[in-house]
Amino acid sequence: MATIRANIRAMSGYVPGEQLNDPDIIKLNTNENPYPPSPRVFDAIRAALTSDSLRKYPQPLGDSFRHAAGRVLGVDPESILIGNGSDDILTILTRAFVPEGGLIASPTPSYILYKSLAEVQGARFEKVPFTADWQLGETWPRADLAFLPNPNSPSGTVVPDEQVESLSRRVNALVLDQAYVDFAESQGPPVSTAGHPNHLIITRTLSKSYSLAGIRFGFAIADPGLIRELVKVKDSYNCDVLSLAAATAAIEDQDYFRETRSKILTTRGRMNIELAKLGFDVTPSEANFLWCRIAKPMKPIYEALRQRKILVRYMNYDGYDGLRISVGTDAEIDRLLTEIRSLV
Amino acid sequence: MATIRANIRAMSGYVPGEQLNDPDIIKLNTNENPYPPSPRVFDAIRAALTSDSLRKYPQPLGDSFRHAAGRVLGVDPESILIGNGSDDILTILTRAFVPEGGLIASPTPSYILYKSLAEVQGARFEKVPFTADWQLGETWPRADLAFLPNPNSPSGTVVPDEQVESLSRRVNALVLDQAYVDFAESQGPPVSTAGHPNHLIITRTLSKSYSLAGIRFGFAIADPGLIRELVKVKDSYNCDVLSLAAATAAIEDQDYFRETRSKILTTRGRMNIELAKLGFDVTPSEANFLWCRIAKPMKPIYEALRQRKILVRYMNYDGYDGLRISVGTDAEIDRLLTEIRSLV
What we know:
The structure is a homodimer.
Chain A: H1 6-10, E1 26-27, H2 39-48, H3 51-55, H4 63-73, E2 80-83, H5 86-97, E3 103-108, H6 113-121, E4 124-129, E5 145-149, H7 161-170, E6 174-177, E7 200-205, E8 218-221, H8 224-233, H9 241-252, H10 254-277, E9 281-282, E10 289-293, H11 299-307, E11 310-311, E12 313-317, E13 320-326, H12 330-341
Parallel strand pairs in A: 1-11, 3-4, 3-5, 5-6, 6-7
Antiparallel strand pairs in A: 2-8, 7-8, 9-10, 10-13, 12-13
């Protein structure tokens, strides 16, 4: 048998949230957007669906997307790196900054993929606990790379820009994972004006706020010199022609984006109030999900909901557990609240 | 400035073949298929173009594709790993088998990406020259991973199964890169019956023979236990929902595949004869391109063709140079032959 590296054999592998095929299920477990993508996305995909675009290689750097995103976000297109989902971007960053035996740091409880990225790279991984009110811990190692999701998952909380800047000074490179930033009050530190822009890499995804988890598109924003190095690490053609068309159309339709964002924020507010009424301790969230806990066993609640065809995420971080519930449509949340009422 | 790993800084980065936007150009430089993908591919993409499929995460392991490909190729679906192009698969294999400072080996002249994969991984790279008649060299290092493209690029030549099997015994793991195998006479050693199946990993792409370079889809075939390890290395959702639909439809339409393959083989035969008449030494090819050389400076021929809007690939391996010309439509090849006739 060909010998696989020991770090790969030893790891258990990241397990993504359940993807069931049952169309009747109410899926509140992987923070997908409950609303369709912009109608312009469908038009753009149909327009790109030609023999020539399918049979030929796509744009290696996704220049059409980079120019569109640059305009919308007010950044230099040269400071944008395209990715096959932001997972691809996180992998590229890991490979660019972290040698085998190097160190990745991340707060905890947080996105559990970061540990898997360290394991695949053969790197060490160090967790720095959040404070009780979800502020950054004080003592950080001098990591080759730190991942800071902001807003964080599962909490939906945001650490202020000063803490981000301070952390960026204390590690070799800081990845500010803004997968959920479009649901937050503030967009975080602009990469162009942050105190240490060269240490700060911002990552974003179109999976959540642009309703495009199925097409896999994410991107990084960083210093153009750094982006040129990251291009060496990515696969030459890491984004396909239809995804590029979809992503470009989605980010250009800011009116539609604002409309669905607004609906999600309204529903999130209502969920918060109703879950609190049922006795849950709900962490104030700036993301499209809520982290809620209650003083009784929570795994059985998750299981009972699952039996009733409502999928939420039960998460357990070394004994600190809770339910992470995505913000669905109003009808989905009504169903959830009805069922949960009978369970607590 | 955040410090990028030295191996990344030191590398120049893989440069893919030129992708010009000019629709008038005759593109014979990156081995794209000159014919459209199967009509079923368009139908499948249109059918998959729903709000739900775009907004939700896709199948992590691509089970629909795995079952279709398993049926068509006569292999266990569990022995198939899906990839975002076969580049993604080659990256996954590198990360799974090669530690930092480890060794990757490949024949030369061959696919130049393999060296870049070693550089990104911080691994050493050793080239083993082909013999003058494109057979495998005898002396191979005990590499962590060897890449053997079969048919090879730029030569289009095939080494026989016995040489493949012999090499698989001499390295930790052998990747048989069959990007062009669909244009060859033989499909190579079946993974299920090869002498050392656990040492042998087959990779394929739908970019060339299925005319789908734009949608990025490749796959690996290997021992199911090995595939389970590789799943830990890949990004969770590395293939998007539209690519999966396209790839599944394409591989299911074997009649269409045989039809375009047959046209390409016929044109290849004609190109071979005509280029030889013009004084070129043309290597007999089992791929969808020809490697041809002539006893005069070849870079100026490439440049003159480029000025006349015909793109071919000029390749130079430490002084051994030539032109790699993709098999186009008959009309494209007629244009090429007319222009080249005036240049040699």
